[in-house]
Amino acid sequence: MTYEELAFGDGDPDREPWLRSWMAAHVRLLIASLAVAGLAGAGGWYLYERSWLPQPPPDIALSPSFEFEVAMCGCDGLPATTVEQRQEAEAMLRAMPQVTSVEVRSGEERADQWRRSHRGIGDTERAQLASSRSGDVLHGVLRRAEDFPAIVEKMRSAPRVSNVYRSGVNFWAGRAEARISLCGQDFISQNAPECRRSKRAGATGTVTEEEKAAVVARLRDLPGVETIYFQDSGHALKLVKLSYPDYKPDGPLPGSLYVKFSDPALARAITPAIEPLPGVRAVEPVLPEE
Questions:
Q1: Of 21-25, 71-75, 178-182, which has the strongest mean pLDDT?
Q2: Listing from the earlier edge strand, what are the strands of the sheet with 67-72?
C-alpha cells in the first residue's frame, strides 16, 4: 500500500490525490499568504521597535508666558530681605498698571518644592542643596507679554531685589517627569565636567548618536517608562523665544530627552541609572504646573 493509499483510502493509480490537486491549483495563493504573514510579523516588530524610539514633542499650540518672578535676596553671607522690604517691593508691583496679579511665595516653600522634585527623580544630592534657595519670590502676571521690560526697570529701585526674570513656558509639565540634558555645543555643555570627560582625541564632547542610543537603551530597561521624547534644538529655541523673543543663541541649543513614566513614583530610578552615562550633562525634574 502506498502513502497516498494510506492518506486517502484510494489505490486507483488513475486518480490524482485530492491534496496534490488542490495545492497545484492554489499554489500562488499559498505563497501570497505566507508572504503576507511574514510581512505582517516584520511590520509588527518594526512598529514595536519604532514605539521605543524617542518621539517628537507633542504637536500642540504654543503661547507666550505672561508670568514673571522677582527674587528677593536670600543670598548666602548677606542679610536676608526683611518683611518690610519685601512688602515694599510687593506694593511697587501691585501699583503698576502692567501687572494683573502678584503672589508671594516663600523661600521655604520653594526650597521644599526643590527637595521634593529632585527626590522624585532619585537625585538626593541636589535635593540637599535647597537650603541655599531661601529667598522669597514675588510671582506676578503681566497684562501683556511685551510689558516685561517695564517690570525690570521699576524693580531696579526696589530694596533687596536680587533678580527679575520671566517664567519660562512649562511645556513639559504633565507630559514628562524628568529631563535628560545632553551634552551639546553650547557654552554650558562645553564647560560642564560631565561633558568634558566625554572628550576624546578630536572629539568635541557633544553627545554622539551612539551615546544617545545607549541612553535610550538604558531607559528601556527602567520599569514604568511609558514614553521617551526627544526635543531638538529647534523646539528648544521655540520655547525660549516665547518668553524672550529677542534671544539669539551663540550656537545650536543642546538636545534633551524627556521621559514619561506610567507611575511618577517610578521616576526615582532615573538619575542613578542615567546620569553617569557618557553624553549626559544632567538629569533634572520637570516641575509641575503651579
A1: 178-182
A2: 99-105, 137-142, 67-72, 161-166
Task: Decide: 181 and 280 in contact? Cβ < 8 Å.
Answer: yes
CATH number of the domain bearing residue 233: 3.30.70.3040
Please identify which residue in the block is written with the cell numbers 542643596: 129
Residue 237 included in any domain: yes
Q: Which ranges in 163-207 belong to alpha helices (H)?
A: 187-191, 193-196
Alpha-carbon distance of 182 to 216, in angstroms, equals 12
Q: How many CB atoms lie within 10 A of CB 92?
A: 20
Q: Which residues contact 103 (CB under 8 A, 6 or more apart)?
A: 138, 139, 140
Task: Give the domain range for residue 217.
Answer: 178-285
Q: What gap in Å lies between CA 254 and CA 231, rounded to an integer?
A: 9
Question: Where are the strands (E) in the chain, listed by range?
Answer: 67-72, 99-105, 137-142, 161-166, 178-182, 225-231, 256-261, 280-285
**Residue pLDDT, tens place only, 220-262:** 999 999 999 999 999 999 999 888 888 888 778 889 999 999 9
Q: Which amino acid is at 211?
A: E
What is the arithmetic mean of pLDDT over 204-221?
91
How many residues are given for the chain?
290
Task: Specify the pTM.
Answer: 0.77
Q: What is the pLDDT of residue 201?
A: 43
Q: Do 214 and 247 sit in the same domain of this protein?
A: yes
